[in-house]
């Protein structure tokens, strides 16, 4: 027994977790047999049994096998409910499972024991962390301003999982969807959730298909490994859409509560798991994984060649629309989802799965690659326009234009067409969003602007209608700021910048729609002045 014990300790210290688990399993079985046989050395054996469960828990936790590690912690605590090492180990596991309150209880209990004084820095560090994350997950009071302003230097800020005013219901778009439960303004944080798995790599533009396949394979392996260790997670993944139309009406609508950190039932991890065969897992990942983009690309890779793919289960319940109302930011392994425009209670939250500042034919193509036909109001509106052949001609002109095409001419033709076709209100925003490439080239060139001055609408009017149709977007905000810089919303000249309170308020509202309220006013202001 002594030999086995020193071998197990050595393996654990050498971070050889799998063999150390085997050694502790042997010790546990020997101790249990001797205790059952009423061995006179009972108290010593009990102590050894407790320590072995505790150390096996530590090794299992290091291998991210949290379910079995927690079971070992419970066994150790059944023998000694104030076992310091076990309480700390259990606290760390619960913390990594986002169960901040439960983790806090463990560290508080560890703090009461005699060993706490020798390890006060360690325990106090964990206590502080739990309190901070528990507060964030309860209030959603995140602030990533300093990190963003520092150019994403250093470690990304520590985030907690958080769920705001939302619910899961059956969706008219497809299957289930997420819905706002109260009116919220643009920029309001809706939820923060941590990835089941992410795989990232720096991929130069000319990386071939194989490099993408390697990222995808690593990602699939990571998801399958995580699911293999927890029935609760397998069941959650199993319940995601595989993108097949015939499953639409049979999909269970999960309770939003199961995604709340404190409601997550660790016992569910021990329940019988659904059988997740590789075929189904691949279809599910195909329909539910998202690429990390925008901010995150600047975060980790710090260059444009950076690529990352991940699975965020709660975010996977958001359907696509070409007039989306929420956006996401990737901060470390967390995804932060906020309203990109004002939302009404009961409204379904929708993402842009692909770039919706593109023409109808391109959007159709991108939706096809996701395996669906988008039936959103904007697509229906554009599909039913009587003048589709004219807009199609303009699309071809715009998309095929290799520098030689006068984009001012395309914009003029569209604006003049909309007058003839009687397009009003949001319809204008839909079409301007579809021809955004042409508008942005016009507003981005002094020369073209001068040529078409007064023949096409001012930048501000275009920005307003596009934001109304597709929500805030950094490219649209940029056009607004450039218009102000030129002096006047339309870009008439004379030099300017943001001079008035109204202009500043509007720029802030637009920027908040892009970055969300996790960026505070001072940070948004510097972004705005930087863009100006
Ligand atoms: C990430 S899931 C979205 C949540 C899904 N509705 C559910 O119940 O789990 C993506 C799948 O939802 C469906 N979907 C999402 N947006 C859609 C849309 N605008 N029109 C049709 N189907 C859509 C497609 O089947 C797609 O493969």
Automatic annotation (TrEMBL):
CDD domains reported for this sequence: SET_SMYD (cd20071)
UniProt xrefs under Pfam families: SET (PF00856)
Domain SET as annotated: residue spans: 164-354
InterPro entries the UniProt entry points to: Gramillin-biosynth_MTr, SET_dom, SET_dom_sf, TPR-like_helical_dom_sf
Domain of life: Eukaryota
Classification via Gene3D superfamilies: SET domain, Tetratricopeptide repeat domain
Protein name: SET domain-containing protein
Species per Swiss-Prot/TrEMBL record: Erythranthe guttata (Yellow monkey flower)
């Amino acid at each position: 027994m002594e030999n086995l014990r020193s071998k197990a300790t050595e393996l654990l210290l050498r971070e050889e977790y799998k063999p150390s688990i085997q050694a502790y399993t042997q010790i546990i079985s020997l101790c249990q047999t001797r205790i059952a046989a009423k061995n006179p050395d009972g108290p010593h054996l009990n102590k050894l049994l407790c320590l072995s469960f505790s150390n096996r828990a530590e090794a299992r936790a290091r291998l991210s096998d949290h379910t079995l590690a927690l079971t070992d912690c419970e066994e150790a605590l059944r023998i000694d409910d104030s076992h310091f090492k076990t309480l700390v180990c259990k606290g760390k596991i619960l913390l990594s499972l986002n169960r901040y309150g439960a983790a806090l209880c463990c560290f508080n209990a560890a703090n009461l024991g005699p060993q706490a004084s020798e390890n006060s820095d360690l325990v106090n560090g964990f206590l502080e962390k739990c309190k901070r994350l528990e507060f964030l997950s309860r209030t959603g009071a995140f602030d990533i301003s300093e990190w963003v302003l520092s150019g994403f230097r250093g470690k990304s800020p520590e985030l907690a999982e958080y769920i705001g005013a939302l619910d899961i219901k059956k969706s008219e778009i497809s299957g289930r969807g997420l819905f706002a439960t109260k009116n919220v303004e643009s920029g309001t944080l809706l939820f923060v959730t941590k990835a089941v798995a992410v795989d990232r790599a720096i991929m130069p533009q000319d990386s071939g298909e194989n490099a993408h396949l390697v990222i995808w394979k690593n990602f699939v392996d990571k998801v399958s490994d995580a699911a293999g260790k927890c029935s609760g997670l397998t069941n959650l993944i199993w319940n995601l859409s595989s993108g097949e139309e015939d499953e639409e009406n049979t999909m269970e609508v999960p309770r939003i509560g199961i995604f709340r950190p404190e409601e997550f039932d660790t016992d569910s991890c021990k329940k019988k798991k659904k059988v997740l065969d590789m075929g189904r897992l691949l279809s599910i990942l195909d329909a539910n994984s998202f690429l990390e983009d925008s901010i995150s690309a600047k975060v980790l890779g710090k260059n444009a060649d950076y690529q990352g793919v991940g699975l965020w289960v709660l975010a996977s319940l958001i359907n696509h629309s070409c007039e989306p109302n929420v956006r996401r930011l990737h901060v470390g392994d967390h995804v932060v989802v906020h309203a990109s425009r004002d939302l009404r209670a009961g409204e379904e939250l929708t993402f842009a799965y692909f770039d919706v500042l593109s023409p109808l034919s391109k959007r159709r193509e991108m939706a096809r690659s996701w395996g669906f036909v988008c039936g959103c109001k904007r697509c229906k509106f554009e599909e039913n326009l009587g003048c589709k052949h004219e807009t199609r001609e303009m699309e071809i002109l715009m998309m095929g234009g290799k520098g030689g095409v006068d984009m001012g001419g395309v914009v003029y033709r569209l604006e003049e067409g909309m007058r003839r076709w009687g397009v009003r209100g949001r319809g204008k925003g839909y079409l301007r969003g579809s021809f955004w490439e042409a508008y942005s080239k016009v507003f981005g060139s002094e020369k073209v602007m001068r040529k078409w001055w007064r023949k096409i609408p001012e930048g501000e009017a275009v920005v307003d209608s596009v934001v109304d149709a597709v929500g805030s977007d950094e490219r649209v905000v940029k056009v607004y700021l450039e218009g102000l810089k030129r002096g006047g919303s339309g870009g008439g000249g004379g030099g300017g910048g943001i001079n008035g309170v109204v202009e500043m308020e509007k720029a802030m509202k637009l920027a908040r729609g892009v970055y969300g309220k996790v960026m505070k006013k001072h940070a948004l202001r510097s972004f705005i002045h930087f863009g100006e």
